[in-house]
Amino acid sequence: MKTSDSITLTNSRQYNVLKVLVNRIVDERKIEEKVNQTIDASKIRTGILTKFYPYLDKFEVKLDNVSKTVLCEKLHQFGGSLIDFYTPEGETVFCENLREPCIVPREELHVCVADISNKDKKEMLMLGYFFPNEIVGIKPADPGYLKLMDIGATNLWGISIGRGEVKVNTCDGVTQITGEFHEDNTVVEYADSKEVYTKKEVDALIKKAIEDVKKEILEVDANAAG
Asked: Whole-prediction pTM value?
């Protein structure tokens, strides 16, 4: 009789055999590593906003703790016919990578992003801004009020809405624009895609060019008459 035939298969021995087999499969297929990678990818991450593309409504974000930048969609608070837009203050430059004008923020803006990729598309979503440090020296909104502030060097400007009233704190007054079309919002982009001007700026350049031509003509006529 063979030695193996005389071994009684107990629950403990069966468990040990299966445990060795399962551990071997898990190790070979790196299942634990893949699970950890999947969990890590699904986490909400933090980062610094490096570029904002106003015409794409997208953000470039440098993720914290890793040397990686990602392109993110913007999570809006409203949708449909009412949409909230905000352009960070910064320098307007042209991004050679996406061939799009963009804003490089002047200050360090901290944001939260999430991976919303699916099997068909790799995609990130910028969830919103957050403040890593304590906010000091600013009066918060009163109970029951929504407060939007423009924080200047010497004062705070903004609007508060709540409890049946609207409070406006402004330096230059309130501007009202009436009409359906606002020509100054028309953007003119040149063929080389290096500079972007508003229609108002283009009109000013054309006016100056006409004045320069008139001046040259008058100078030529004066020289000819002399």
From this structure: 0.60
Domain count, the chain: 3
**In this structure, is residue 175 part of a structural domain?**
no
Query: What secondary structure does DSSP assign to 7-30, as a single string?
Result: ----HHHHHHHHHHHHHHHHHHHT
CA–CA dist 31, 21 (Å, integer): 14
φ and ψ of 35, to 5 deg: -65, -45
Q: Which domain holds residue 30?
A: 4-38
Task: Provide the residue type at 160 as one letter.
Answer: S
DSSP 48: E
Contact residues for 132 (Cβ-Cβ < 8 A; gap 6+): 110
DSSP conformation class of 201: H
> 32 and 95 share a domain?
no
Burial readout 130-158 (b: 16 or more C-beta within 10 A, e: otherwise):
eeeeeeeeeeeeeeeeebeeeeeeeeeee
- As a 3-state breakdown, the chain gives helix, strand, coil percent values, each rounded to 5, of 30, 30, 40
Query: Could you give the angle at which helices 31-41 and 11-29 cross, rounded to 10 degrees?
Result: 60
At residue 159, what is the residue type?
I
pLDDT 10s digits, 57-115: 999 999 998 888 999 999 998 989 999 999 999 999 999 999 999 999 999 999 999 98
Task: Determine, yes or no, domain membership for 191.
Answer: yes
Are both 53 and 33 inside the same structural domain?
no
Q: How far is CA 122 from CA 44, 93, 109, in A?
A: 15, 26, 24
CB distance 102 to 93 below 8 Å:
yes
